[in-house]
Write a structure and sequence with these properties.
The complex is a heterodimer of chains A (about 300) and B (about 425). Chain A is mainly α and about 300 residues long. Chain A contains 11 helices and 2 strands, in the order ααααββααααααα. Classes of the chains: A mainly alpha (about 300), B alpha/beta (about 425).
Chain lengths: ~300, ~425
C-alpha cells in the first residue's frame, strides 16, 4: 500500500491518467493542425481560428437538431454526417475569407492579425444573433456516451477514444496529402520559395486559397469533436485560441511534426501536473516551462530549413 | 435637472398637476384599483436622481456576453419581467420604470466602469445587477462612493454587509451549511472532495464548507481543487476523485465550465444516480440547459428556489415568465431572486415615500414580499429570510425537491467559528 491506496488502485488510476493525457494530446493536435497549416505554411496569423472551430460546433448542433426532428431512426450516425458538414461549411467560409480578406494582406502580417481579430469578433456576434447568447447543448448519440471498461477498475471515456481515433485519422490523411500528393508538393514549394514556385508555373493564389480553406475545414472538424467534451457558445472559440497558438509556436511554426511534438509535451505536462497540483498551478507551471524553452530556442522545437 | 421647475412657487407646473390630481380623487374612489396621483418629484427626489413626474430610471447591469452569459441572461429577463409587471400596475410612486441596460461582459473591471456610468451619468435610482462575487466586489467601492443601491441576486459566500447593497440571494450559512447537514444525515457521508472554479466565491465557500465539515461535523475532506473560469479539461481531477473515492463530491464549478465538467464526469462513467453522491451549489436550471439534463441527472443541489415548487404563486410566476420569454425558458434560483429585486425596491420606495437612496435604505428592513419561493422578509443586515431546499436533478432539466427547511433561515453573513 502506498499512501493508503492499494497497488491495483494506483496502477489503474495511472492508466486512466495516461489515457486522459492522450485525450488532451489529441484535443491539442486537432486544434493546432488547422492553425499549423495556415500559420506555418502560409505565415498568416489567423486570430479567428477559434471561431472556425465554433462554426464546426454549431453545425454539429444543427445536425443533431435536424436528425432528432426528421430522421430519428438515423440519429446514431448523425455525428459522422455532422463532421463532414462541419468540414465543408468551415472550409467554404475559410475560402471565402481568404478571397475577400486575407489575400489583400499577405505582405502585412500584423494587419492580418488585426483583420482576423476583427473577423473573430464579427463571427462571435453572428453566432450570438443567430443562435442566442447562451450555450446550446448538443445531444450525443447513445454509443458515444459513457465509458468503456478495460478492467473493473479502469474506465476510459468512449468519446475520448473517439477523439483519439479521429485525430490519428486526420493527421494521417494530412500527412499523405502534404507529403505524398501533387497538391501537397505544390504547397510545400510555395512555402519554401514563393517567387520561384510562381516562376515554375504553380498558381500560388489558388494554392493559398485552398490551403486556408483546408486549415479552416480541419478547425471545423475539431469544433465538431469538441461538442462532446465542452460547451458550445458564441465565445467558446476564445477558450481554445490561446492554447492553439501556444502549441503551434512552441513546435516551430512551419513544421507539422513540431506541432505534434509540442502538443504532446504540453498536454502531458499539463495533465500530469494537474493530477498532483491544482488546475491553475498546473497551467502556470506549464506556461512557465514553455516560456523558458522559447527564450532559449525562439524558433520552436522543430525548424524547417528554408532558403530565403 | 428634473427638480428645479417644481420649486418655482404659485404658478409651478407641479402645483397645477397636484390640484388636477386632487380633482380626480373622488373618481378614483370609484375605480376598482386605486390610482393615486404621483407624489411631487421634489418630494420623492431630493438627491438629483433621474426622476420625472411620470418616469423613474433604474439600471440593469449583467453579463450578456462571455463565460457568465449562460448564468446571467436569466437575471436580466426576470428583472425586465418584474419591471413590466410593476409598470402594468401603475409603476412606483405613480411613475413608470424605465431601465437602462449595460453589459458587464463577464469582465469585472467593465462592471465597475458601467456601474459608475449608471450612477454618475444616468443617475439611476437603483441598479439590479452583478452575479459573481468578483463582479460585486468590483462595483462595491463605486456604490459606496456615489451612494447608489445595488440589488444583488446571487447566492454567495457572505462575509459582507454593505450599507448600499441588498442581497436577494442566500449567503453561506443559509445555503452551504443547511445543504451539508442534510446530505450528511441522509447519506451518512464521511468523506468529501471539494471542487471549485478559481475565484473568491468558490474558494470562500469551500473554506466555510471545510470548517463546517471538519470542526462541526467532525468528518474528513479528502481533496480540494480549483480550476480557472472557462477551463474545459477535467479528466485529471476526475481520475483523482476515482482514486480517493469520496462519499460526496462538493462541486462549485461556475459558468460555462459546468458543461465540460458534467459531460466529462458522465463520460468517465461516474454514476450519480446509483453510486456517487454529488452536491452542488452552483448549478441551477439555467446551467442545465447548456449541460444537458442527461449529463447531470442524479446530482443534488442546495438552493432556495426551484422552478418545480408547487405553489399557486410560483405557477403564476412561471407562466408569466414563459409568456414573456418563450415556452422553452427555465427559471433558476438566481433568476427568481433577480425577479424579487424590482418588487422589493418598489415596496421599499413606497414605504419610504421617496426615491432617495438613504430613505429607501432606512425603510427597507422588515419589508415583506410574496415571492414565488414564498414570503421573504428583508433583514437589518440587508439579506433575506428564506427557506433552503434540496433538489435532485432530473433528466428533463428540472429538479425534484427532496427537502425543505421547516422554518425560514435567518441570514447570518458573519457566522462565528467560520472565519
Amino acid at each position: 500500500m502506498i499512501g493508503g491506496y492499494s497497488i491495483s488502485d494506483l496502477a489503474s488510476v495511472l492508466v486512466m491518467q495516461g489515457f486522459s493525457g492522450l485525450i488532451l494530446f489529441s484535443v491539442f493536435v486537432l486544434m493546432a493542425l488547422g492553425l499549423a497549416i495556415i500559420f506555418g505554411q502560409m505565415g498568416v496569423i489567423n486570430m479567428a481560428h477559434g471561431e472556425f472551430m465554433a462554426v464546426g460546433s454549431y453545425m454539429t448542433y444543427l445536425c443533431s437538431r435536424l436528425f432528432a426532428r426528421y430522421l430519428p431512426g438515423l440519429f446514431a450516425i448523425h455525428f459522422f454526417v455532422a463532421m463532414i458538414v462541419a468540414f465543408i461549411v468551415a472550409g467554404a467560409i475559410g475560402i471565402a475569407t481568404e478571397w475577400l480578406l486575407i489575400r489583400r494582406l499577405y505582405a502585412r502580417p500584423l494587419d492580418t492579425l488585426l483583420a482576423t481579430w476583427g473577423l473573430s469578433l464579427a463571427m462571435q456576434q453572428a453566432f450570438r444573433s443567430i443562435f442566442g447568447a447562451r450555450e446550446v447543448g448538443v445531444t450525443l448519440p447513445q454509443w458515444l456516451m459513457g465509458s468503456f471498461n478495460l478492467t473493473s477498475l479502469i474506465q476510459v471515456p468512449i468519446n475520448g477514444l473517439f477523439v483519439m481515433g479521429l485525430t490519428v485519422l486526420i493527421t494521417a490523411a494530412l500527412f499523405v496529402l502534404i507529403f505524398r500528393s501533387r497538391w501537397g508538393r505544390q504547397v510545400r514549394a510555395v512555402t519554401q520559395n514563393r517567387v520561384m514556385s510562381g516562376a515554375v508555373g504553380i498558381n500560388t493564389e489558388r494554392i493559398d486559397r485552398y490551403t486556408f480553406g483546408l486549415g479552416c475545414g480541419i478547425a471545423g472538424i475539431a469544433g465538431a469533436a469538441f461538442t462532446m467534451i465542452g460547451s458550445t457558445s458564441p465565445t467558446s472559440g476564445q477558450l481554445y485560441i490561446v492554447d492553439t497558438f501556444l502549441v503551434v509556436v512552441f513546435g516551430g511554426a512551419q513544421s507539422l511534426i513540431g506541432t505534434i511534438a509540442s502538443a504532446f509535451t504540453i498536454s502531458q505536462s499539463q495533465s500530469t501536473l494537474e493530477f498532483f497540483l491544482s488546475g491553475s498551478m498546473a497551467k502556470v507551471l506549464t506556461l512557465l516551462t514553455v516560456v523558458g524553452i522559447l527564450m532559449l530556442r525562439p524558433q520552436g522545437l522543430f525548424v524547417l530549413k528554408v532558403r530565403r | 435637472m428634473p427638480g428645479k421647475k417644481s420649486r418655482a412657487g404659485l404658478h409651478s407646473a407641479t402645483r397645477r398637476k397636484l390640484l388636477i390630481g386632487m380633482g380626480v380623487l373622488p373618481a378614483a374612489a370609484l375605480l376598482p384599483r386605486t390610482v393615486f396621483a404621483a407624489p411631487a418629484t421634489s418630494a420623492v427626489n431630493t438627491t438629483g436622481l433621474a426622476v420625472t413626474d411620470s418616469t423613474v430610471k433604474v439600471g440593469i447591469l449583467h453579463s450578456i456576453t462571455g463565460t457568465m452569459a449562460i448564468s446571467e441572461t436569466g437575471s436580466v429577463e426576470a428583472e425586465k419581467l418584474a419591471i413590466s409587471q410593476i409598470n402594468a400596475q401603475g409603476g412606483v410612486l405613480g411613475r413608470k420604470i424605465e431601465f437602462i441596460q449595460e453589459d458587464g461582459a463577464s469582465d469585472w473591471p467593465t462592471f465597475a466602469e458601467k456601474s459608475k456610468k449608471l450612477l454618475v451619468e444616468d443617475k439611476v435610482a437603483a441598479v439590479f445587477g452583478c452575479w459573481t462575487s468578483a463582479s460585486r466586489k468590483a462595483v462595491l467601492p463605486v456604490f459606496e462612493q456615489y451612494h447608489g443601491i445595488l440589488y444583488y441576486p446571487t447566492f454567495y459566500e457572505g462575509l459582507e454587509e454593505s450599507h448600499d447593497v441588498f442581497y436577494e440571494g442566500q449567503e453561506a450559512t443559509q445555503q452551504i451549511i443547511a445543504g451539508l447537514n442534510w446530505i450528511t444525515k441522509t447519506k451518512g457521508a464521511k468523506t468529501f472532495y471539494l471542487l471549485g472554479s478559481d475565484y473568491i466565491w468558490p474558494r470562500t465557500s469551500n473554506k466555510i464548507a471545510r470548517k463546517h465539515i471538519e470542526d462541526h461535523l467532525h468528518l474528513k475532506v479528502v481533496g480540494e481543487d480549483y480550476f480557472p473560469l472557462g477551463n474545459t479539461e477535467f479528466n485529471s481531477v476526475i481520475n483523482k476523485m476515482k482514486l480517493r473515492r469520496p462519499d460526496v463530491i462538493y462541486a462549485i464549478i461556475v459558468g460555462g465550465s459546468n458543461v465540460a465538467f458534467y459531460k466529462q464526469l458522465k463520460a468517465a462513467g461516474v454514476d450519480m444516480v446509483n453510486k456517487q453522491t454529488l452536491l452542488t451549489i452552483s448549478v441551477t436550471e439555467d446551467e442545465i440547459r447548456g449541460i444537458g439534463g442527461d449529463n447531470i441527472v442524479g446530482a443534488y443541489a442546495a438552493m432556495k428556489y426551484f422552478q418545480s415548487i408547487d405553489t399557486p404563486t410560483n405557477h403564476k410566476f412561471v407562466a408569466a415568465f414563459k409568456k414573456m420569454w418563450g415556452p422553452q425558458s427555465v427559471i433558476g434560483d438566481v433568476t427568481q431572486a433577480a425577479y424579487e429585486g424590482p418588487w422589493l425596491w418598489k415596496l421599499e420606495c413606497e414605504k419610504a415615500g421617496s426615491f432617495d437612496t438613504e430613505k429607501v435604505i432606512a425603510a427597507a428592513p422588515g419589508t415583506v414580499f410574496n415571492a414565488p419561493e414564498g414570503p421573504v422578509k428583508v433583514h437589518e443586515n440587508h439579506h433575506l429570510w428564506s427557506h433552503t431546499r434540496i433538489g435532485r436533478a432530473r433528466s428533463d432539466g428540472q429538479y425534484d425537491i427532496v427537502y425543505v427547511t421547516p422554518e425560514p433561515i435567518e441570514p447570518n453573513p458573519f457566522p462565528k467559528g467560520y472565519q
